[in-house]
């Protein structure tokens, strides 16, 4: 039985089956007024002023940052945004990449960890609870020179999460897709279109 492991603020761990997806409609999300923003930062530390201005101007509920370039030497305090809970996943072992998902503190959210075969190196997944509904929010960075194995993990993750009501944001680096016609000349890009 496939599933997610949910990570709560209190440190408790529990398994949740994905056989019966949570019921949430995008209409409910719209009614809740969720505003989402996704940015490729190419180093969030160097773009703090721009991020703060964007947050002040747009007041989003959910912010996705790809290519955060964060690492273990950069503390959560340096990356945090007042009024937001931060979920981050840094690239390990080399410069670049990484993702940070900010969700307003007023929204009940918790991180979920995908099963091993879908655990992407540079992706973070959260559930947002609104009343009796749950919405899964994902943020993915797909490097242009991604390995076949990691690319398959991203595809597996998206297929698994798509069984639920979800919002998936990110920088997927599918340069051969013609988005207007949904056509592609690249094999890996064509796989993305099937999702």
TrEMBL record:
GO terms for molecular function: catalytic activity. It comes from the Bacteria. GO terms for cellular component: extracellular matrix. Residues 50-182 form the Endonuclease/exonuclease/phosphatase domain. Signal peptide: none annotated. It holds the Pfam family Exo_endo_phos. This is Endonuclease/exonuclease/phosphatase domain-containing protein. It comes from Labedella endophytica.
């Amino acid at each position: 039985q496939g599933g997610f492991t949910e990570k709560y603020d209190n440190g408790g761990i529990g398994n949740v089956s994905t056989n019966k997806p949570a019921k949430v409609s995008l209409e409910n999300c719209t009614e809740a007024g969720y505003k989402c923003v996704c940015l490729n930062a190419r180093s969030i530390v160097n773009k703090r002023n721009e991020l703060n201005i964007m947050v002040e101007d747009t007041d989003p509920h959910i912010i996705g940052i790809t290519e955060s370039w964060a690492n273990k030497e950069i503390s959560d305090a340096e990356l945090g945004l007042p009024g937001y809970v931060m979920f981050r996943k840094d690239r390990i072992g080399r410069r670049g990449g990484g993702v940070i998902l900010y969700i307003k503190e007023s929204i009940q959210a918790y991180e979920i960890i995908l099963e091993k075969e879908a655990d992407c190196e540079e992706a973070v997944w959260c559930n947002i609870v609104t009343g009796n509904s749950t919405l899964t929010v994902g943020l993915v960075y797909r490097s242009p020179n991604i390995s076949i194995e990691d690319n398959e993990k991203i595809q597996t993750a998206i297929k698994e999460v798509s069984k639920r009501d979800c919002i998936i944001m990110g920088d997927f680096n599918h340069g051969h897709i013609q988005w207007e016609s949904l056509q592609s000349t690249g094999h890996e890009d064509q796989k993305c279109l099937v999702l």
